[in-house]
Amino acid sequence: MTRTVPPSSEPEAQTATAPKDVAPAVALHTGTSNVRTLLTSNLRQSGIYVAFVVIVALFAILTDGTSLSPGNVTNIVLQYSYILILAIGMVIVIIAGHIDLSVGSVVALTGAVSAVLVIRQGMPWYVGILAAIAVGLLIGAWQGFWVAYVGIPAFIVTLAGMLLFRGLTLQVLDNISLSPFPSEYSRVASGFLNGLLGGNGYDAFTLLIGAIAVAGYAYSNWRTRVARIKYQQPVESFPLFIAKIVAVGAVVMAFAWQLAHARGLPIVLIILAVLILAYGVITNRTVFGRQVYAIGGNLAAATLSGVKVRAVNFWIFVNMGFLAAIAGVVFSSRSNGAQPSAGNMFELDAIAAAFIGGAAVTGGVGTVVGAMVGGLIMAVMSNGMQLMGVDQSIQSVVKGLVLLLAVAFDVYNKRRAGTSR
User: Fold this and answer.
1) CA end-to-end span of the chain, whole Å?
2) DSSP string, 69-97
3) Residue 239: exposed, middle, or buried by beta-carbon count in 10 A (0-12, 13-18, 19+)?
4) Is the pLDDT of residue 17 over 50?
């Protein structure tokens, strides 16, 4: 009796797996090259970047290049860093469908606590910083408790907090200003790293940090591109991908070049960069970040899927208190003292930065990077109008119109997406 041996299945397995092995390598060089398609596929975010470039170019022309001078670029970083720090926390709050009106008062209170300990009681400068952060965390826990576990809307809780913490600031300071801080404390917002690697007329260390940032950005985008291809998601064509990296790299290096020719790398910029990287990872690559988006996108679905909504909301406000405390330290360091009126209207600047940066009014949408771009748009506009000598009242009108148009743009995008289905 002859036994028939079935044909080996190994060639078939090899044939089936071969395309999977080579597909990513081929796909890395494919994708759409239609610039209009790329811009309109995510109009909310792409429009922000285009608007930022246009605004920077406009004020560079109107101020005869003064707005892009090394000294002015450095001043923008120093003057608006605390708003950008607040915007990081505010965009997370908004993504979850909440709002925080108290951050300006928290900035004032944390700065006041630090000033009393360091200036009035003579404690070391780092004790003031730690105390400010501790107060910020307690405030965040206080507000998170009322929002998450009692169920009071965040608008009401933080509106009450705005009044409560402003009153406590007056009590802590006895309604007077305290100054100056020790030089070590002032260096937090006004210090620079300069001359670490030398340089002839420029700071080589600042340029090195800029180059490292560009390399990190390129590597991160490469990994994201490979991952999107692996899951068969659309990507831009390879030439456009390279062009994007080159364009961003040129902007970053030009920014670093201006800083290097001024006073070097601001310490506060290092703090801001660390926060941006950390919260970019938290919002995009952690369970907590995905849960925040889920709560803001569809609260009922998030609850049914097992998300601990109360706990997430609680920690959202604890985090906001922490970042408001960091901003309070930076602002008090920048102003070299604590004033009862400190932080006035900061909450509106942070909210504006988040909405201009692409956050949705209804929650569920927004990014840390977008909030930073929105904050920079406000910073460049304010700085440019100041250089042009525009009256303060006109500046407020322009800022209000920009915020209104940003929200209107968000509403337009939603209607456009709804009618296209």
Assistant:
1) 66
2) SHHHHHHHHHHHHHHHHHHHHHHHHHHTT
3) exposed
4) no
